[in-house]
Amino acid sequence: MGFRLATWNINSVRLRIGQVVRFLEEEAPDVLCLQETKCPPGQFPSAALHEAGYHHICDKGQSGYHGVAIISKIPFAQTSMRDFCDKQDARHVSVRLQGPDVTIHNFYVPAGGDEPDPQINEKFAHKLGFLEEMTSWFADKSAHEKGAGILVGDLNIAPLEHDVWSHRQLLKVVSHTPIEVERLLGVMAAGQWSDSMRKIIDPSEKLYTWWSYRGRDWEASNRGRRLDHIWARGGIENAVTAITVRKDCRGWERASDHVPVIADFNI
Which fold has domain 2-266? Predict the structure, then answer.
């Protein structure tokens, strides 16, 4: 069966709920995973999503920061949430669908601040610790569901050379440093995850999902990074049939600095 999933760092779901509904109307994914919802518990804008046909919502939020949510046309058989690094900062939620028997993990990995040195930058140390804990968790097979799985989210790392506008110039910039890439690949290996986006789009091609607000003209300069990811495992690694990056959404009025990524699966 065809299954369509999307992921999007929305950078405040209440501020941009109109854009979310527009995207759902245009692309009709079965499931949409959001990050950086910045929405306190109990204030998620569910009514607009119900009107759009998405009646199943699992969200973990906090006031002003972080936050993740999974919005679905398909009912959930199970939901769960995990805290990392002994912090309650709303960075993970997962569901198992009743339709296709697949578990979806939605992550918002810490950005890591500006200085790529854990000795002097607590935010970068937190990011590395978060990735280490993800690795240990996925390496523990007894802690996880069997069968098909998809991991999505703003992982805040662009691992490959052509996931950034300039590999050479960004090697010492947080999100593309060798230690971050090493830790992210460790997470992937521990969970036996496959990079669905690069299954379809050759690693030799430039691929971005984020363009900074700091750029004077983001589209003309095109200094992007691929910070948003879709991974698969458990027998559906080769089931992805298409990847769509909605770069045009970056040009919407008051847009997020991230754009939606869509994966179509035959599962």
Answer: Deoxyribonuclease I; Chain A (3.60.10)
pLDDT digits (tens, 9 = 90+) for 7-45: 999 999 999 999 999 999 999 999 999 999 999 999 999
**C-alpha–C-alpha distance, residues 60 and 89, integer Å:** 9
Q: Is 198 helix (H, G, I), strand (E, B) or coil?
A: helix
Alpha carbon 105 to chain centroid distance?
Answer: 9
Model pTM?
0.97
Residue that has been written with the tokens 């854009």 in this structure? 19
What is the dihedral angle through the alpha carbons of 35, 36, 41, 42, rounded to the nearest 10 degrees?
A: -70
Residues 6+ apart with CB under 8 A from 229: 7, 151, 152, 153, 155, 195, 197, 261
Here the tokens at position 95 are 């569901």
One-character DSSP codes across 205-258: S---SEE-TTSSSHHHH--EE--EEEEEESS-TT-EEEEEE-GGGGGSTT--SB
